[in-house]
Fold:
Amino acid sequence: MSASSAASLLRPEVLASLSTLELVARSAVEGFFQGMHRSPRFGFSQEFAEYKAYSEGDDPRFVDWNVFARTDRTYIKRYLGETNTRLMIVLDVSASMGYASGAISKLKYAKFLAAALSYMALQQHDPTGLIAFDSKIRSYRPASSRTGSLQAILHSLDALEAGSQTDLSESFRQVREHCQRRGLVAVISDLYCDPEALTRAVQPLAWRGHDIMIFQILDRAELSPDWDESVLLEDVESGQQLEVSPDYLRTTYRTRVAEHLERMKKVAAGVGADHALLVTDEPLDKALRRYMMFRQRA
Amino acid sequence: MWLAPWFLLGLVGIGLPIWLHRFARQTDQKRPFASLMFLEASLIRRSRRHELRYWLLLALRVLLLILLVLAFAGPLWRSLVKPGATGATLHVIVVDTSMSMNQGGTWDRAVEQATTLISSVKGADRAMLVAADHRMTVLQQPVFAAEVGRLRAQLATLKAGNSRLDYGALMAGSGSWGAGPGEQIVVHLVTDMQQSASPLRFADLRPPPGIHIDLVNVGEEKSSNLLVADVREAEREPGVVLARVEGDASALNCRELVLEVNGVERMRRALRRDATLPLIERFEIGTLGVGEHRLAAKLSPADELPQDDAHYALLRRVEPKVLVIAAAPDGDDARYLLAALQSLASPRFTAESAVPSALVSRQLSDFAAVVVSDAGLLNKPASDALTKYVDAGGAALLTLGARAAQLSRVPVSNAKLAGGRARAAGNEPARVADLEQSHAVLREPGAWRRIRFFKHVAVEAPDDAKVLMRFENGTPLMLEQPVGHGKLLLFTSPLDRQWNDLAIHPLFVRFVAEATAYLANTRTDAAVAMVGTALDAELLRTGGGQVFDPAGKRAAMLGGLAGGAKWLPDLPGFYELRGSGRSDFIAVNVDPRESQLARWDDAGRTRWMALQDLQPTPQAAVATAKAGERLFPIWFWLLLGAAALALLEPLVANYHLNVRRERSA
Structure:
């Protein structure tokens, strides 16, 4: 498989044509690694990653005794792909995620991403779980690396539909209850919320030691709407209607969206989270690469 | 209440704007969007205002339709009013359209004043327009101030006529204008205050109770007029026509009098400036031939009142043919009758005698009348022929003699003979005891009572016959009976010397002549009429036909005599009556009283106005104007509201539709 053909596998419209989420996940991840010319089995390499202070529970076999001899301190060596990190995918299934200006809705794109992340994580034997929320938790699957976890997650993803309005504070309060052990939390949402609300929702997770990655998914039409005449817009969550001129959408609206994205990045940076903006017409490799990089840092 | 409730079905049309609005909303480019959080709050508020405007526009359009439908349905607003409670007034604007209003600028002033009166109608007052001359014509029923345009439209088409107005008749007729409850009637009489329009009795000027008179004088203070009052053939001077000119001597300047005969100018004569009025001009035109001649005397040039500058008359030179039926053409009775008929100078009859069989063989329509010396002479064919002739409009004088006494019924008349025999008078001859003096042939009652009747045939008067003379015992001597379109005179005693001595009295010739002239309809004084006066069947002398006015246009269709045909000419000149195979003329002139332009003085008007003060106004008004319901038509206001909404609608619609073109400022 050539690099170009592998990259084409990551295009959302190509993934959308696949029949099952498992196939989607496999195609995305395989295609991603094919393009990177690296083995997906990265977790078992012997490439040194870092030293880490020994703590209770660490395997004493990995203690670097040479360092202990020199410094009288106990460190363990860590290698790439060596660690098992608990991945909890927190997926926003509010009504706004159901929006689509084209064939791929934000929710569908988010499902692809969640499936790919799950596949990738479980390939590394990272326990992976799923929480879907809108105004509250709609679906919960605890993190597990057991055989069949992927199918369970994919099945849960497959059953998800766009729900109602978003309530970050309530939903993340429940998310915190399910994420007692520290790990990696991948939040997938369009983040149509107040930046302070996002801070209040995510900050406690960061304080607990979770590594947080925020995938903000938007449609191209949300970023740069382009209509020739006035349109009557209907909020898919509230049902509120508003007649808007194209000039407004081309100027003020875009400025406001850009400001909102910037604030979201700052919020993410403020809580130590990684923020990635994904547009539904973009291939998944960007997201997976960000995950890989983040995973390796975690 | 509704004037046209079926229009309410139009309310179904309200569904149209509702459907259109729904349709319009459906066609809006409504698009789902993830979130409106980046849209300005002010934009949201504006959108709410647009929504409000949308409903406002819909409501406005629905209301517009409702108002239109209601306006066409003609709703009437019902309100209870008490007498005098409203203070409303019914203004009856009466415009004098008599002939004198044509004088100078009188009519223009009348229209101007009437227009001013119409414009002054305000508030709850109503107004109506009436044209008054020889009759009162309501041109526009009462309307409210908002609809006075109708009055103006009627006034614009109104013209002064040629007939006469009588103020007394106007006052008597003004009581028929009923005011609504609580309304007071004010009659605004726009007139030239002509003295000759006054009634014979001054008291006849009193208006009916509850009606106030407002005299609007539009007459000219100083005016002069000249008229031709008469034109006729001089008595005992055949071929000489006399024309009488009356009026103001100041109007004689540079005027000529023209005499036309049958539409052709025969003579023209300049009037002397110093002539004394009335002036009688003599025109020697020579003897006219047999027939009807139209005489017209005209002043030239015409003055400011041209309608009376001409006078029209008919001159009839007739020599009617009369057929005398007797047992023998040279018998005594035939000779007496022929002699009597031929002795007349006017009308000059052409009489001939014949036996009864001539009634069958001759063309009876050539004869103006048929005289039968003894109805018993008529056999069945002759009787039928004579009946047919009379029925078609002819005339016959039947006398009943010895032969008729043998019959059971009188031919043509079908009158039953009482006893079937001639009745002798007894020892003393019978005399006329009762006669119709007003009849044209019975003008000398004293002479008739001197006639002795030794015998007569007693007949029972038919129901449709009128007994003109009776004997002392009550039996009829002479009857007049209509037969079809014709006339029949029945004399129950023969015109010979055996049954009566009429033949030896001077009355005999006059009676035969007048009776025959009456039957032949040869009078010359009946064919003159005045504008605005009803012409009765006798004057029209026709069994039906068409009437053509002086301009040659068909003016009327007349029924038969039995229909009591009456018709009012409205133009001066010669009217032509065509029908029943003949053509007759009627000379129609204006009423000479309309030519007298003298005005009422202030004292006279004050006295007239004082008459209405004499009436018990408050009580009478209360009596006539009882409390009741009053219906106000409100369609106009609804239409006005609809028009206002129609103006407002595009503004609101544009305001609403501007949303689509709105720019984010």
